[in-house]
């Protein structure tokens, strides 16, 4: 028999970790979006999630909170005063979105990327490039925010400073996602003679490793302040 889990204790643990849920209104639709940590999550990450669920391009999607349009995608949600239970409104580039969007998708569980079975080197090159972009681009804003938060000499610090524990959790999250990308690259099989695909994989590994080094270096500098 599975052990009983106290839901109130679990909720308290989630609150302690910074996890919140925000409510987004889009026409007749309502989305309840879980946020791992409002102090560490940039606006761009929420916009990306909503773009994925609704199909609206990120450059045509705007969020309104308490009557004001949220404009800076690099600011964290907490910098806008967004907290657990906050209600936001989503609008498109030309005004309110249609009343019948695609239904909200359940949380996506990342599956192992399957290499295409192809005789075309260009197909494999494009697949490798898209694989790397799919890892790095959704994390760019989060990485920039983390590096800025962890930098001991950074300027223009956000209103809410992150605790050591919050930065530690974010470092672990970013590192894990980047390492998954590196593992995917390591598993790519390239036929003999496909030099362009081999170079694309090499550049992809270099890009992923560079982002991981940025994250690790920023965290290393922050840890030294705590010792």
Structure keywords:
chaperone; Methane Monooxygenase Hydroxylase, Chain G, domain 1; six-stranded mixed beta sheet; protein-folding chaperone binding; disordered N terminus; BAG_domain; 227 residues; single chain; alpha+beta
Largest sheet: 6 strands, mixed
Task: Please estimate the helix content.
Answer: 40-55%
Q: Quick check: average pLDDT?
A: 79
CATH superfamily of the largest domain: BAG domain
Q: Kindly identify the CATH topology of the largest domain.
A: Methane Monooxygenase Hydroxylase, Chain G, domain 1
Number of separate domains: 2
Please explain how this structure is put together:
The chain has 227 residues and is of the alpha+beta class. It folds into two domains: 19-96, Phosphatidylinositol 3-kinase Catalytic Subunit, Chain A, domain 1 (Ubiquitin-like (UB roll), Roll); 121-226, BAG domain (Methane Monooxygenase Hydroxylase, Chain G, domain 1), CATH 1.20.58. 46% of the residues lie in helices and 13% in strands. The chain has six helices and six strands; from the N terminus they run αββαββββαααα. The chain has helices at residues 7-17, 43-54, 121-136, 140-150, 164-186, 195-226, and strands at 20-26, 29-35, 61-65, 68-69, 87-92, 95-96. Strands 1, 2, 3, 4, 5 and 6 form a six-stranded mixed β-sheet that branches. A hairpin with a 2-residue loop joins strand 3 and strand 4 (68-69). Helix 3 (121-136) packs antiparallel against helix 5 (164-186), helix 4 (140-150) crosses helix 5 and helix 5 packs antiparallel against helix 6. The model is unreliable at 1-14 and 94-110 (pLDDT under 50).
């Amino acid at each position: 028999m599975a052990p009983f889990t106290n839901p109130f204790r679990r909720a308290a643990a989630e609150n302690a970790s910074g996890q919140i849920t925000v409510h987004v209104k889009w026409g007749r639709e309502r989305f309840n979006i879980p946020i791992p940590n409002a102090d560490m999550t940039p606006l761009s990450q929420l916009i990306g999630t909503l773009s994925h669920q609704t199909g609206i391009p990120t450059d045509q999607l705007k969020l309104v909170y308490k009557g004001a349009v949220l404009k800076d995608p690099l600011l964290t949600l907490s910098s806008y005063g967004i907290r657990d239970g906050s209600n936001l409104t989503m609008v498109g580039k030309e005004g309110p979105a249609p009343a019948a969007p695609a239904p909200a998708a359940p949380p996506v569980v990342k599956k192992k990327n399957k290499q295409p079975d192809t005789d075309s080197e260009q197909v494999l090159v494009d697949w490798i490039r898209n694989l790397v972009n799919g890892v790095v681009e959704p994390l760019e804003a989060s990485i920039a925010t983390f590096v800025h938060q962890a930098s001991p000499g950074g300027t223009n610090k956000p209103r809410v400073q992150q605790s050591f524990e919050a930065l530690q959790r974010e470092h672990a999250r970013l590192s894990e996602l980047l390492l998954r990308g590196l593992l995917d690259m390591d598993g790519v099989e390239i036929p003999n003679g496909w030099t362009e695909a081999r170079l694309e994989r090499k550049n992809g590994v270099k890009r992923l490793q560079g982002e991981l080094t940025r994250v690790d270096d920023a965290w290393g500098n922050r840890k030294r302040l705590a010792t």
